[in-house]
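haha ok so turns out i had the wrong file open the whole time. this is the CORRECT one, sorry everyone. sequence first:
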Amino acid sequence: MTRRELPLRLAATAALAARWTEPALAQRALVAGDVPADTVWLNANENPEGPCPAALEAMAAVLGRVGRYHYQHQREFLSAVARSEGLEPEQVLIGAGSSEILQTAVYAFTAPDRPLISPEPTFELPAGIARALGHPVIAVPLTERYTADVERLVAEAGRAGGGLIYLCNPNNPTSTITVKSELAWLVENLPPRTVLLVDEAYIHFSDDPELESAIGYACQGREVIVARTFSKIYGLAGLRVGFGCARPDLIARLGALRSNVVSWVSARAVMASLGQLPDLLVERRRRVAAVRSGLCRWLAERGFSYLEPHANFVMIDLGRNVREVIPELVRRGVVPGRPFPPLRTFLRVSLGTPAEMETFRRVFSEVMAA
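then structure:
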């Protein structure tokens, strides 16, 4: 980015802040007016377990020292995150949530002549950023299986002469996966001047053998960037920590556009959580799977169809316009996900605690029977 381009980029960022930052997206899911005090919030794909005990202890221990900067310890933090994935520090970039990694990738690898190519529906942030920058966005409908159409993603990138392909795997909001054979095909067939950005925010929630991380391709030196977050299975959403993995030259391009430094409190919580691996992930995945399978079983017994889920949320086909159902759920104290056009009959429900899901089942039954 040249000095001439910088003012334009800053102006676009100001426009982005009004609509396409994470807080702006989250505001869509918030409910206007009063809600019951015991409202169950199943709208943000959060982990109700929150931080593990080791993370809580680590944060408490460092709080008294936050009056000073801790930049000198950031290398230690970066190295710990890199080690957790078997990578070198120069292959990793820390961000304020994985959203900062997605944002810098859009900045670095889209342009007026290099579009963002993305499935639809999926997580809206990358497309929103590209549009705010004035860069073209090519939306590719999902397949009949509600999965990414990898062949069309590649074809669109080829027709455009390159660009940034965004793939959320498992996909938000559908909770479906791009299987490893399709991911491999996608990587092998990337057109020239094309980078693949794989968002793996929810990958830890599934142990399906057909789901494979793209980090291996990033390590092989491919044109692949992988974004990860500590917000979901680690339960650290409010601490805003994520990271990207890629070739060192790609990481350097992203790093030049990064604007945030993760707080030392957040860093210590992440490092403490990493110290609990692999048991932390195994146990949390098991508990989420139990809640997920229980909900799916209950839905099937009552004749409701849903997309086979691989994350910590489920897409339920209501058979009627979801915009008519959501306000009634909210009025009764359950807040699900917002609508996700063009899936107009589908309701996204994040998985909560067993007690919260019991409340959801009761309220859902009441609303759907009305």
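The longest strand covers residues 163-168.
again sry for the mixup
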